[in-house]
Amino acid sequence: KQEVTQIPAALSVPEGENLVLNCSFTDSAIYNLQWFRQDPGKGLTSLLLIQSSQREQTSGRLNASLDKSSGRSTLYIAASQPGDSATYLCAVEETSGSRLTFGEGTQLTVNP
Amino acid sequence: ETGVTQSPTHLIKTRGQQVTLRCSSQSGHNTVSWYQQALGQGPQFIFQYYREEENGRGNFPPRFSGLQFPNYSSELNVNALELDDSALYLCASSFGGRRNIQYFGAGTRLSVL
Fold it and tell me: Which of A24-28, A41-45, A88-92, B90-94 comes out lowest in average pLDDT?
């Protein structure tokens, strides 16, 4: 059974700091890995999707990497801003099915 | 804005009642997935519908059922509500059964008293 773990569970940083969020998964038979952002009480916003054949994806200040063989992904946020405060979730889509399996998220607070 | 709309936004029910949640897919999408997110947890996969057929199911009891209509909108039905069913219910639409980005709606917050 696929398990996805995110570390740390919570993170508080001052504005302007660069930071890294970590995601690990137990079964490397995946189609892709996706990073989402969730604001309190809201739905999920897709940030980046990395196909299993790719090593990284970039969008603005965000960069996500994928090492499928070791079951790890990182989300790098450059020059963090208070508006980046949210919960960040990673999810994998397995080759054995159509579901996304999510981690429990990292709650990020960026202080002005 | 993802183009995926869910209704209602909030709902309060009592234990034992039945509830229907609705999801309208993004234009051109033929796949809808439903997820349950308890407070402080990541979303859990309930089931997926692709071209009106169930295309995978998570570890949820049969009292969780669904439908997908010819216009690819979808319903999630939950019978015999339990207190633990209180959660945010999310639907996501995509094109094709797998390997494509799933776009999420804002969710329906269900409270069971």
Answer: A41-45
Of B56, B92, B102, the CB nearest to A97: B56
Smallest Cβ–Cβ distance between B48 and the set A32, A98, A104 belongs to A98
Beta-carbon contacts below 8 Å between A and B: 68
Helix H segments across A16-110? Answer: none
Interface probe with A: pick from B47, B101, B109, most Cβ of A within 10 Å: B101
pLDDT (tens digit per residue) in B39-71: 989 999 999 998 889 988 999 999 999 999 988
Neighbours of A26 (CB within 10 A): 12
DSSP B19-79: EEEEEEPPTT--EEEEEEE-TTS--EEEEEEETTEEEEE-S--TTEEEEE-TTS-EEEEE-
Count of other CB atoms within 10 angstroms of residue A86: 20
